[in-house]
Amino acid sequence: MSELWKTSQWARLNDWDWLNQPMPESLRDVKKRIAETFPVKFFYHMLEFARLDPNARDGAHFVRNEGEFRFVEYDPISAQLIQLFRTPRTIDRIRSSDMLTRLETLKQHRLIVPADKDEPVDCLAVFYAAITLFGIWQVEHEFVPALQRIADLRPKRVIEIGTGWGGSMFSWAQVADPTARLVTIDLPWGPGSLVVPTDYYPRFQQFKHADQTVKCILADSDSDEALKYALEWVDGDSVDFLFIDGDHSYEGVRSDYERYHGLVRPGGLIMFHDVFTPDGGEYPEGLGVAKFWNEIRSGFEHEEFMLDQNIGVPLGIGILNVPE
Ligand SMILES: C[S@@+](CC[C@H](N)C(=O)[O-])C[C@H]1O[C@@H](n2cnc3c(N)ncnc32)[C@H](O)[C@@H]1O
Q: What is the pTM of this model?
């Protein structure tokens, strides 16, 4: 029997005209770089953003190999093929020479793959895709292993507080269950405290798996309204994974924890960002996450992901395991 082929689970369509979108001044360089590098509309294989360069390995960490980004510019025939191969099928049923040529290109870019091929998650690649396409306020050596924990959990319900540029929500969506419902909450005047306008939100819909849903809630996380919408969006189900990365003051993070932690199911995970305590134990003004983390962690089984200070400045990720 002829070999079956399918669309890669990592195939995505980017359809965003960076040059003609309203973007704030602070993102001018990002916008310019992306607009110069990519066409407005292209297919990409999510895990083709990062390559592990064996010569660039330094102990356990990998250095990004620049210039490996690969994409296929959008055209209707490629779009049709990507849609068609969502159901595995043989190639011999395709007769049109135009289609066969496009199919070869899609195969070269691993957008169409043998149906029996495993496609494991590559958290490093997800991280670099997040940086390249959205921007992320995370440190590689902390975020990549922490993301692996979320990948192992394969959550079906996710709540994130603090969208920023969208890079962390992008990452959760890649490793979550393909049918997951995900919610991200940021302040009403746009994610990232005026960093990105709300017009950017439709772009979030492009990065998810076809059967996932992603909801952006524009509200103060410390409001009944935000909690109500978040609950509605997860269908009243309990949440597998809660990420707290919004208001970084001690009162803010404590309030987020108190309001949302009860939604997380036994066996679920609660992740905090910026839990690193600087030498001397002094918490910088407005950065009370570490103080709260140090108070709460001992009551739980927990893990910390902290960049080695010989490599760079840690921010720190803390994960609480909610008891079964
Ligand atoms: C550090 S950024 C989030 C970064 C993002 N999670 C990432 O990893 O790339 C913090 C975000 O929290 C948002 N934020 C601050 N206070 C908030 C609040 N009370 N409610 C909702 N969002 C808030 C800010 O607007 C900002 O976008």
A: 0.91
